Amino acid sequence: MGYLDGFRVTFNRLFEERVTTEYPQEKRPKPERFHGRHVLNRYEDGMEKCIGCELCAGVCPAQCIYVRGADNPIDDPVSPGERFGYVYEINYLRCIHCDLCVEACPTEAITESKMFEFSFANRQDAIYTKDELVVDDDGKPQRQPWELWHDGDDALTSGWMRATAPSGSAAHVGQVGWSGELGYGVRSPELGQTAPSDDDPDGGQG
Ligand code: SF4
Ligand code: SF4
């Protein structure tokens, strides 16, 4: 291709519809299951869901979660389990928001909000501590001064859907496992979680 052909290609592109947006002035709507900054959820009675099992840390491909569990104080338990997450940290300089930690968590303690616009002045601030990650008394993510939240970023943070059957029961194959949240965040069931079959060739998406 001669250089004139190259100019023609470039010139023609000027009249095509743009696929890029002028971020940050223009922001595209986020999908319902967008992965952003994590939260550590609590039950309606205020108990923390994390039981300090470290499964999330074990599965994390970026090795950015640090958890230490401790026995619950008998007189003042933090979680309903035998143990609770005594230390919980996520290093956001490493996190790739793959959500494997969310998949691995047996109690749905860790889920993700849709907030991803945050920046830090030093490396230490990029390591979120448990105090920053745990939801407030209304079950909503705490908003840190260096974070930019938008409407809806804190909604549906705990409505994570599992594609496999809850508790391994075959009767629940294709059913959705929900985690309740404090008054909001429960999604409507979505379709398309079953394998295509002769009766349902599009896997429930039709
Ligand atoms: S989203 Fe992925 S990379 Fe980030 S903490 Fe969870 S498992 Fe690790
Ligand atoms: S967040 Fe979930 S997987 Fe991670 S330590 Fe707590 S209970 Fe275990």
What does this structure look like?
This protein is an alpha+beta fold. It has a domain at 33-141 and 153-172: Alpha-Beta Plaits, CATH 3.30.70.3270. Helices cover 12% and strands 14% of the residues. It has helices at 3-13, 55-59, 100-104, 130-133, and strands at residues 38-40, 65-71, 83-91, 110-112, 117-118, 127-128, 147-148. The protein has a three-stranded antiparallel sheet with strand order 2-3-6. The chain has a two-stranded antiparallel sheet with strand order 1-4. A two-stranded antiparallel ribbon has the order 5-7. 24% of the residues are buried. The model has no long low-confidence stretch (mean pLDDT 82).
**Helix-strand makeup class:** alpha+beta
Number of E strands: 7
Distance between the termini: 46 Å
Into which percent range does the helicity of residues fall?
10-25%
Q: How are the strands ordered across the major sheet?
A: 2-3-6
Strand content: 5-15%
CATH class category of the domain at 33-141 and 153-172: Alpha Beta
CATH topology of the domain at 33-141 and 153-172: Alpha-Beta Plaits
Low-confidence stretches: none
Task: Determine Rg (CA atoms, Å).
Answer: 21 Å
Q: What series of H and E elements makes up the topology?
A: HEHEEHEEEHE
Shape: extended
Biggest sheet layout: 3 strands, antiparallel
What average pLDDT do the residues reach? 82
Put simply, the count of helices is 4
CATH architecture assignment of the domain at 33-141 and 153-172: 2-Layer Sandwich
Bound molecules: iron/sulfur cluster
